[in-house]
Amino acid sequence: MYIEQIKKFKPELFLYFIVPFCFLALMAWNYVASMDMDTNEVIHQSISMLGVNGTFLIMVGPLAIGLFIVLIWTKFIQRIPITALTTSRPKIDWKRVFLSFFLWGTITATMIYISYLTTPENFIWNLKLDKFLIFLIIAIIFIPMQTSFEEYLFRAHMMQGIGLATNSRLIPLLVTSFLFGIMHAANPEVDKVGWVIMIYYIGTGLFLGIITLMDEGLELALGFHAANNLISALLVTADWTAFQTHSIFKDVSEPSAGFEIFTPIFIVFPILFFIFSKIYGWKNWQAKLFGKLTN
User: Fold this and answer.
1) Fewer Cβ atoms within 10 A, N terminus or C terminus of the chain?
2) Domain ranges of the chain
3) For position 240, what pLDDT does the model report?
C-alpha cells in the first residue's frame, strides 16, 4: 500500500516535517510580504525588466530546484528509495503518467478551444513564433519539474508522513489538499477573482490526493498536474495570472468565479474518477480513503 510500504524503512517521523515546514514558512512569508503590494504589478515590473521568459524562469526556477531538494532529502537523509516515495508498485509506471497527461491535456485543450469558439471576443492572437519556440523549450523543461515538486511534496512526502503519524488516510488527504490550496493564496488570481477561487485550488488538491490514494501511487497525479500547467501555459495567458507567457492566445476578458472554477470541480473531475476507476479497476473506496493504515 502507498503509505504503509514506508514502514519497512523504519522512518524517523520528524524528518517528514522539516522540508514541508521550511517550504510553508517561506510561502507564509511570501504571502505576508505580498499583502502590502500589488502582486500583478510586481509581475509586470519584472516583465518590463527581464522579459516574459525571464520572469517565468524566476517564478518556476525555485520550485524546480525544490524537486531535487525533496528527492535528495528522501533518498539520502531518510534513506527511502524514490520509487517508494512515488508508488507502491515495484517500479514507477510511466504508462500511467503519460495516460493521465494526455487525457487531461486533451480535455484542457478542448475546453480552451470551446471557450474560444463560443466567446471569440475574449481572446486575441498572441503568437510570436520566435518567442513562443523559446518559451516552449523552457516550459517543457521547467513546468514538469515545478509540478512534480508540488506533487512529491504534498501528495508523496507530506501524505506519507502525516499518514504514518496519524495512522489515517483521511487526515493526510484533507490536510495536504488544504495546504496545497493555501499555497496559492499569494497568486494574483486571488486578488482578481476573490477567495472563491480557493474552491478550485483546494478541490484540485483533493482530486489529486484521491487519485493518489485510490491508485496506490503518484503517477496519475504527476501526469495530470504537468498537463494542467503546461498545456494551459502554452495555449492561453492573461494579464492577471501568475504565469504570464508567450502563449498562442491571450484572454482579455474580465475574470469571474464561474465556469472555470466550478465545471472542473463538480463535473469534469467526477468524470475522471469514473474513467480512471474503470481503467485501473479501483475498488474499496471507503477503506482506501477513510480507513486506518494496515500493518
Assistant:
1) C
2) 16-290
3) 83
60 contacts 43 by C-beta, under 8 angstroms:
no
Nearest to 135 by CA among 45, 251, 252, 235: 235
Run means of pLDDT, 10 residues per run, the chain, 295 residues = 92 95 90 74 85 92 96 97 97 98 97 93 94 96 97 97 96 97 87 88 97 98 98 92 90 79 92 97 96 87
**CB within 8 A of 127, min separation 6: which ones?**
247, 248, 249
pLDDT of residue 79: 96
Strands of the sheet with 123-125, listed across from one edge: 123-125, 249-251, 236-237
Beta bridge partners of 168: 292
Q: Where are the beta strands (DSSP E) in the chain?
A: 123-125, 236-237, 249-251
Amino acid 66 reads G
Give yes or no for a contact between 290 and 209, defined as CB atoms under 8 angstroms apart.
no
CA 287 – CA 214 distance, rounded (Å): 10
Helix (H) or strand (E) holding 142: helix 129-150
Cell numbers describing residue 172:
493526510
Under 8 Å between Cβ of 239 and 230: no
